[in-house]
């Protein structure tokens, strides 16, 4: 009787084991049905990237090797567009200005948000209000924020020259100041406006990273007699290294594509003697501010050069930081 009961209980299980496995196609269909939502999101993302990122890149590369023909259409032009822009003196001036802006933006715009975040992290009162004040410029439209600085920099009635006159100091033309050397007054003025406009987001990211550092590390450093500078060097910077590296790469890529700062502050002119002309601004002028339909192809060629430079930098930076990690 007992053996019969055991056999009865095991019969369904044995039947399931003995049943043939569903075909592979059926398993794949069942798995696809379970993951249908994920596939839908993935396909949508791929389509968006295809039409709004990858296709424009491919189209830009193709246009950089073409020139328009009479009656419409394009024909293959080889490297003529690249040769044309390389022989343009403004090309080298724009690259020098872009490199100058990037260096100044890293010296000022990369260090200042980190210092502000450290100060905010040390405060015990009014921290929330100060966060809002620091992030407020980010909430302003970039054009509006830059128009505010254009008013401040105005040589006739601007705030900064009023302060200089009050202090009996020499006045400045700021973004319209002539000068062809490195780190000109005009470029420094553009970097100051850009830093004020963009530092809020980086400050909050740094602040979030600082607040995730265990307090025991600071307490141990204090017990060993470490001052604030030693705590920053031996605790803060190592603990926020990943955030610092990530934001450094993002900032370099972003500053190399500087456009709206110089465009708004100089009314689209690139400053006196093109001393604030950037590579992206030169692309804009090739495409829209110069006569001749072939300038679209020259603008595409310059865009491809910039893309390759940024790709090489990003790849090399990621490889170097990976090796060090």
UniProtKB/TrEMBL annotation:
Protein's name according to its UniProt entry: Sugar ABC transporter permease
Keyword terms of this UniProt record: Cell membrane, Membrane, Transmembrane, Transmembrane helix, Transport
Keyword Chloroplast: no
Membrane topology type: Multi-pass membrane protein
Predominant location category: membrane
Family classification: Belongs to the binding-protein-dependent transport system permease family.
Positions of transmembrane segments: 37-57, 101-120, 132-153, 182-209, 240-260, 299-320
SUPFAM superfamilies according to UniProt: MetI-like
Localization, UniProt: Cell membrane
GO biological process, one term: transmembrane transport
CDD domains in alphabetical order: TM_PBP2 (cd06261)
Positions of the ABC transmembrane type-1 domain: 95-317
Tree of life domain: Bacteria
Keyword Transport: yes
Organism lineage: Bacteria, Bacillati, Actinomycetota, Actinomycetes, Streptosporangiales
Cellular compartments per GO CC: plasma membrane
